[in-house]
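# nightly structure sweep
# worker-07 picked up a monomer target from the shared queue
# config: single-sequence mode, recycle default, output format = structure tokens
# input follows
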Amino acid sequence: MSAYISNELSAIKAHDPARHQLAAQVAQYLAMGGKITGPETAPPKTVEQRRQTPNFQGSAAKLETDQQAARIRVLARTLNAVEICEKEGITRGVLRGIARRYGIEFTVGVKHAVAPNKITPESEALMVIQIKECMAKGMNRKNCHEAIGISSTLLLRLLKDYAIDYPKMKPAFR
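# output follows
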């Protein structure tokens, strides 16, 4: 049987005097009325804090982003999101990320002169004339909207709005 001496055990024995001296100092400190406290634990994170992605920016980039968020917060009172993106030179996704991170809400909605699927009255009048020309040529509705270059839905709306009696099909050959 061979005797095995561990290197770690030797190191522990070598530090025994320092360990005993430290234990004596701790006992003296406690005897004088001292208190040993553990590290303070951080309060648990809320669900919203856990949901947010960590910010890995350096201090200079963080300062720049903070300044940009402050500008966006001011602009959000009078401009809509699309206008802010144009002014700041950022995409909608970046704007949404900054808005979520900094709690910015946009109060101004999208501004349209006319609804996106509507056309101007002048264009409508021109299309009505073209529809009546198609009727005179004997085209059916499908051929008419294809010839004019509009959707079938727009054709139906124009027929309804201007009370145009457009037959659904060509008269049958008899």
